[in-house]
Amino acid sequence: MLALIYFLILGVIAVGGALCVLLSKHPLYGALSLVVTMLSLAGIYGLLGSPFVGVVQVMVYAGAIMMLLTFVIMVLNGARDNRTPRFDKISLFVIPAIILMALMLSFLILRTPLVFNPDTARGTVSLTAATLFDTSASGPGYFLLFEAIGLLLLSAMATAVILAKKKLGSPETSDSEEVH
Amino acid sequence: MIPLWLIPLFPLVGTLILAVISISSSTSKKGANEGLVGGIAVLFPALAFLMVLLLSFGLPDAGYRETLCTWFDIQAIRADFGFLFDGLSRTMLLFVTGIGTLITLYSTGYMHGDRGFARFFAYINLFLFSMIMLVLSDSLPLTFLGWEGVGLCSYLLIGFWNSDLKNCKAANKAFIVNRVGDLGFLLGMLALVSVGGISLLSYPELAAWLVNPAMGEQLMAGMPLLTLAGLLFFFGCTGKSAQIPLLTWLPDAMAGPTPVSALIHAATMVTSGVYLLARLSSLYAILPEVLMVITFVGLATAFWAAITGLLQNDIKKVLAYSTISQLGYMFMAVGVVAFDVSIFHVFTHAFFKAALFLGAGAVIHALSGEQDMRKMGGMLKKTPLTALVMIFGWLAIIGFPGFAGFWSKDMILEKLYVSDPVSGPILYGLALLTAVITAVYMTRLMILTFLGKYRGDASAECHIHEAPASMLIPMLILSVGSAFAGFLWAGLIPGAEIFREWLAPVLSTAQTMALGGVHEGAPVSPWIFAGLGTAAALIGIAIAWKLYSGNVPAPKDDTVPKGKAADWTFFFDKFHNICGIQETRLVAWFLDVVVNRFIMLLQWFVGAIAIILSDGVRTFQVRKIRLQMGFSILGMILVIVFVALYGGSL
Amino acid sequence: MELQPVYIQILALILFALGIAVTLSRRNVFFVLMGIELALNAVNLSLVGFAKTLPAMTSITGQIIPLFTIGVAAAEACVGLAVVILIFRSQDSVDIDTYSNMKG
């Protein structure tokens, strides 16, 4: 009972944040709303017995990714094109399509019987660590995937540096002082 | 034992060698060496003649039969390359190869200086090959091969001087009219097959099937089809042998060189129709109605052509109509089941008609190309040897006693008389009248050409010369033939019936089967027939002398007959025009205008569909990525609906 | 009334739909990236929700995968923003409709 109330509150906050992302004019407002949504989702993760995931969500998603996004918005002055309309003809076509798709998927979901299993493991740090790294009795862990993610992050970092790098002596270095 | 396939092989090899020579010399200025080409061209037909001669001694009654290989063998039909050398084919081959060699020798002189010398002899050898295949084969499909081959060579040779459009049109006409007849041949083969199966297409099997008493019921049941087959084969023969209604090509075929007219349109190709009927003699013996049709058509053709010959001014056209008329006589003989007499007339006709044509060719050669008889005259003194040849031929064709035509034509008339108590004498009378007219126009030809004063251009007069030796020797041999060939079956002389004995093994069964009770001897003495025939010839000579030995009016224009003569001459051309050519033109116009446009409309339609569809699809390629993703979501919805409805299984 | 797993899935669906709606209907490039992040989050929620319906041995999977998804989202956000900066240098606009070279 209590879980349901907590869930409802957090759910409403999440949906509200998402709606604000959809309807806001300034990208910074949208980014902040997104952070709110992510924090409420972290709460729901904790409610569902996966506290580790919730904390990781707060640390990485809300803490790093959204910070990066906010940083880039501020650097590139994302609100410069305020004359861009929020919604135009295409969204008039796209949004009903999405609503239709959501309705159909919900129809499919509602027909599936789902029950909480009382034996679910609680995702504590130790259990998560054991699952990720322990390659012995309880089966091979997700060790390989873990390392692969590390490589992926490394390559993404290198890609970002190379892509956005300004060449020394190129014209862009000289006119970066231009005021917009 | 000499293999039979050597006989057609020699002219075929000659064709190939000469074709190679002709093509390789086609770019040079003067053409190939005439001596070499002429030598090769005469050598191969002579070799074939030699083979035939060697094989004809000691020929057994049933003849030699040889199968070379299988031609095609599919489920529905099977045909072999098979050869049959019996009395009938021996007779035909002897004069085909013999006269072929002589005319080839003549052509080496006639075509001297012509740029297409090698090409001419390649075609001549190809023609001899086809004719030998036609005569030597033992089954109808292979005969058809030769039949088509001679038609092709006729086209090639008539249109030999193909820079003149008139010659090309004449060649086309010959080929197309022949083709219409070939349809009859093919349908006749089909009818035979549907009566008794594939084996009937082979001559010995056909003859055995027709006389076999065990096949009586099947025969009765298949009578309508057999009658149809008989009529269809005869239709094919009217095309090849220029009878009514398919005779319009033969006069036009005179546009080719004279040796071609002599070889193809006098001696060999046009007689292949008669040969076919003789081969199928056992079939025709049981079809009395078809025989009646044949007799009637033969008589009508002979009479019509005789009158037309009287109206012509071109020397070669007179001889062409004369050929048609004599072929009518041969068909009349076939119609009264006198196949051997018909083949005898083919034999003698080959000699004297070839002699006449070669002589006419020599006259034309001497006058540097003049063919209008009204511009000739007095050639007797200027070219005596040519005149001698033509006189022999003339005497033979009008039936002067002792010459070849006398024996064969009188025998035909006699057979006509005894064929039927009622209609026999009527047929005899009409044929005798035709003989009188024959004598009239042939005498007219001789008078206009050889007697009197020379009426042509004075400038050509000094060039008149006798023909060279290469032309004279064949002519003289043929004239000897036309004088003495008749004695091979001189009905009035007892014991002189060698020719009939040659043909008896092949044709006698059919003849005895058909004639049955009618006995051979006529109620009237054969001397009376001989006398009447001679009288007809003499009357004709007298009439022609009276009419034409006077002054000949100077010709104003070309040789084509005018006025009423033109109506008579071109009667069958007009008939063809109304019956076939206008309809074909209409169909062609229809196809060109209506069907063509319809097909273009269909093509446009297909193209339009493609354009509309692609334009429609093109609207889904949008500039904005967001819209494209929106379309993707719609597509996904469709997939989800589909999966949900059918549970994932199609 | 207890908390049912279906509720979690419905919430995930709503968030996913909102995320895609943001992506496809806004013209500002940052909103597009934000929408993608929102959608990824919704997927994570759905996975964790399903993990709770499974017994112990297999349910741990549903809690490991979100970790990897978050890692991948981080990498993708990094590269995506680098690309945005790159495009921004040449086009000088944050309106994604002007980024397209396609015809038609």
In short:
The complex is a heterotrimer of chains A (180), B (650) and C (104). Chain A is mainly α.
| Helicity level of chain C | over 70%
CATH superfamily of the largest domain in chain A: NADH-ubiquinone/plastoquinone oxidoreductase chain 6, subunit NuoJ
Largest sheet of chain A: none
- SSE series of chain C: HHHH
Coarse morphology of chain C? elongated
Range of strand content of chain A: under 5%
**N-to-C SSE string of chain A, H for helix and E for strand:** HHHHHHH
Mean pLDDT of chain C: 88
CATH names the topology of chain C as Helix Hairpins
Secondary-structure-based class of chain C equals mainly alpha
State the CATH architecture of the largest domain in chain A.
Answer: Up-down Bundle
What would you report as the Rg of chain C, rounded to the nearest angstrom? 18 Å
Low-confidence sequence ranges of chain A: none
Note the main sheet of chain C. Answer: none
The total count of helices of chain A amounts to 7
State the CATH topology of the largest domain in chain A: Four Helix Bundle (Hemerythrin (Met), subunit A)
Number of helices of chain C: 4
Contiguous low-pLDDT stretches of chain C (5 residues minimum) are none
Q: Total number of β-strand segments of chain A?
A: 0
Shape annotation of chain A: globular
User: In what range is the share of β-strand residues of chain C?
Assistant: under 5%
